[in-house]
């Protein structure tokens, strides 16, 4: 039997790549891409560009999407990723060493609890399942067992270790005894960083959704600032955008998921509902409990978001039986529960598949609870008011693909043509009169005209989220002076943290990560910051002191 030539095997492997990073629409010989990177494109590579094969990811097609939006993908040399995605030979339950993401100076024992593409879902031994995190198999932050000791370090218990710290050595012995250690051969060397930031505004890429890190989604470079880029998620109106360095391992070239087997989430397949904490929750919901709820539910499947929102209403009720009485048994949806009459009661919600149905259901429920305007599909501000018809045309241009809702005082029965099943799921004996909702429709391209240059300001404004504008505005220190802290944005809060004490500056990004705005800031206590934000005692006490001064009007 004739042996294969390893060089030819490598070339064949390279040809499997389908990355569209240089605008190709078919299988690419990556050697050709490298030539193109250095300004030398061969005739064969030109033929690739003319090929008709396209990248299919479920119902989402990058080739078609790029044409529809008149967009260009970010070239592969922009990314700190391997040209050929590394193989993933890890197995569930394997042990390895990993940096504690909440305390990066500590190296801990971690267990592989999930696999997808070239990524690992890791859980630090001794912690709970609420702090799992993801790492690429070629990340420098994971190493084989023994690497820490070999380099003169010591394995540490994770932040929030559930047992007494003195029991850590014995816990470590028991954890490693008989465990399957990930072999050295399956670890990969981390790729080098690009020489500088090559990204330009408007370029397309694939990016990890940091709020739901198991998802990788289509995204756009919304802004470039020094060594940082603003990653904006297509179709999500800025709620999940984030800034990161150009060499972040959370961003990938177009087509990466196709190569690794990761499931790329098409734009708009997830639903997100925002909570209005500024309005009146009505007579049945406890306002203090409402303030402790997250600012949004999702992004996730419509049925999951509906369940989270309805369950939140039940949990915040003075009497759970009251909210439960407005609901009828549905079918096909998620389960909600309530405790009253010394028993736990459950029922199924109806199956829903779009934000339209989610909002319609919540509108009816909240109208019965007399807590109108509690939910919407765009972030609420303190001065948020339902749009008037004269504002309609202006508001439409602010948002990306999809529908924009502002929940009015009540509901129009003709909101959806096929809504009878939704109506029947809310108890008709408790339904009240209805009037009108304002809705805007329409999908428009992310780039308004193919003729516009990539850096054109008007195009970029449509590509970027409103969050990037808030970021730039909040850099002006005078913005905080004399303003009600409860009206502060997340960026205002970050500015406050930096200005209150320069030593707290490194912790400012935690407030963006946890979406802590002014209202949430005023509710924070030192124990909450330590438990939920991962802060150590010293910084938590300092912040608590400054928050108390802020409440007294001494900032």
From TrEMBL:
Q: Cellular component terms, GO, for this chain's entry?
A: nucleus
For this UniProt entry, which segments traverse the membrane? none
Establish whether keyword Ribonucleoprotein is in the entry.
no
User: Which GO biological process categories is it annotated with?
Assistant: negative regulation of DNA-templated transcription
Localization, UniProt:
Nucleus
Recorded hits in SUPFAM superfamilies, A to Z, give: SAM/Pointed domain, Tudor/PWWP/MBT
Segments forming domain SAM: 485-553
At the top level, the lineage of the source is Eukaryota
Key words of the record: Developmental protein, Nucleus, Repeat, Repressor, Transcription, Transcription regulation
Which Pfam families does its entry note? MBT, SAM_1, SLED
Segments annotated as MBT repeats: 60-158, 166-267
- An annotated Gene Ontology molecular function: histone binding
Tell whether Transcription regulation is among the UniProt keywords: yes
Report the function annotation for this chain. Associates with Polycomb group (PcG) multiprotein complexes; the complex class is required to maintain the transcriptionally repressive state of some genes.
Family stated for the protein in its record: Belongs to the SCM family.
Q: What is this protein called?
A: Polycomb protein SCMH1
Q: Which gene encodes it?
A: SCMH1
